[in-house]
Amino acid sequence: MSSQMPLDWPNCPAWSPFFGFAGICIGVVFSCAGSAFGTAKCGIGLASASLINKSVIVRGLIAPIMAGIIGIYGLVFSIVVLDSIKNDGYHVAKAYAHFGGGLSVGITGLAAGITIGIAGQLGIISFAKQPQLFVGMTLVLIFGEVLGIYGMVISLVLNTKNYECIPSA
Q1: Which domains does the chain have, with CATH numbers?
Q2: pTM over 0.85
């Protein structure tokens, strides 16, 4: 479904790409910040757990790996949106949708990274003390990861509406 609007000031201003690029920046920066935080916290937990029980190192790597995946959500969003920004007119509604999508994937990526980092750190240490907690720890990490997936899905849904700028006659 396409809404065609004339290429003039109210619909396709020269400043509208700013919001698209700002959405890309916010999405990538916050999702990568969440990924970095989660990876760091899980790494601390893995180092602490290896002092308790060395056999948990390989299975405990699932938490930092899951935290590292969160940054990919922002990257996927940025590639999709970057392809939508055109030189010959960029509708302001599309720019706002891309900005909102960047907020969505960025903030949920940050929240997922914090969740995985804290749950992963404590989960790995608990898993080192009691190995039967591995399945429970993994489920909590999956539920934390899903937060980032929800944000990416919302950002991609916001990108589906197509507004086009056409030259005014």
Answers
A1: 15-163 (1.20.120.610)
A2: yes
